[in-house]
Amino acid sequence: MARLKLKKLEEYLQCVDGFEKPKILLEQYPTPPHIAACVTHHIQSQHDDIEGRLVADLGCGCGMLSIGSTLLGAQLTVGFELDEAAADIFRGNVVEMELPNVDCVRADVLQLVGSKWDNAFDTVVMNPPFGTKRNAGMDMRFLEVATHLATGAVYSLHKTSTRSYIEKKSKEWGAQSSVVAELRYNIEASYKFHKQQSKDIEVDFWRFDVTSI
Amino acid sequence: MKLSTYNFLTSMAIKGVKVGYPLKLRITKKDLVESEFNPTFIERLLPKLDWSAVHAAAQQAELADDIPAEQPENIAENELLMQKLHHLLFEIDVLEGEMECPETGRVFPITDGIPNMLLNEDEV
């Protein structure tokens, strides 16, 4: 059960402010409110992995998924973000929406493994950088970190073209992986070099059961 | 930043630092927020808490009287203490302050509620 209806959740998420000046190298594409609402609502209604849980959001940006989790009753959501401008907008969103149970920490996600954050969270949700801008494999590095931080499940978005590779890697790590849904991810023309007004890319929404790691 | 988050922060990513925990917390500005008390959640969180950090946080948050220096046994059966622990960990929002690495003295600022744990390239 989810405490909010999907439609209501999406309405709230439409009020979340996004990047003012997105940085190409950090792949700061916003997670669209519709996708964030569907993803977090699914996690709660189908798997009960948000309400009353400790949730992490890796590479949280302006906090779309963190705020979605918080609206669905996470006891505490911690978003990790490298970029100062994104973290400031995150915090502005949280203050504006008067959400008490959500923190943003400025940190390098890749440095979290082996710290006190190992196995600290019940659930990790993330929309990682897809690793297309001179940082190949970044989403896989985020995913590996996530499997260390969560004790229950990791939910993540990855390009459909990498599906068989992700299956192989998650097996190596001892996680049980499944593709929950195939999404058409609409990246708005947020960077000047995008020729089309809006460009859809094919993205998989994954669930990784990490309870046996 | 909630003090539950503080409980997990370390400076161990700094080159040469062995434990980097607990960070010495100083609070210069804080806010109170309201969060629903969930005893089941606190009980599950207990094994992940480091009592020395919890106790130090309580002193900084001017709640020293609420949290004993040593973790009492059967704490989950003590509802009043569980509520105080909930208040400390989830209802204090640190807006301004800093955290200091116990080994190197490196200071991590907390600004507008955001702790900055980023390190310079020459520190890692």
Automatic annotation (TrEMBL), chain A:
InterPro entries (UniProt xref): DNA_methylase_N6_adenine_CS (IPR002052), rRNA_MeTrfase/Polyamine_Synth (IPR051720), SAM-dependent_MTases_sf (IPR029063), Small_mtfrase_dom (IPR007848)
MF (Gene Ontology): nucleic acid binding; rRNA (adenine-N6-)-methyltransferase activity
Chain ranges of the Methyltransferase small domain: 51-147
Domain of life where this protein originates: Eukaryota
Assigned protein family: Belongs to the methyltransferase superfamily. PrmA family.
PANTHER family to which the protein is assigned, alphabetical: RRNA N6-ADENOSINE-METHYLTRANSFERASE METTL5
Protein name as annotated: Methyltransferase-like protein 5
Automatic annotation (TrEMBL), chain B:
BP terms from Gene Ontology: rRNA (guanine-N7)-methylation; tRNA methylation
SUPFAM superfamilies: Trm112p-like
Protein location: Cytoplasm, Perinuclear region; Nucleus, Nucleoplasm
Signal peptide positions (record): none
Keyword Phosphoprotein set for record: no
One Pfam match: Trm112p
Organism superkingdom: Eukaryota
Keywords annotated in UniProt: Cytoplasm, Nucleus
Keyword check for Nucleus: yes
GO cellular component: a single term: nucleoplasm
InterPro entries for this protein: Trm112 (IPR039127), Trm112-like (IPR005651)
Similarity comment: Belongs to the TRM112 family.
Name this protein carries in UniProt: Multifunctional methyltransferase subunit TRM112-like protein
Organism, scientific name: Drosophila busckii (Fruit fly)
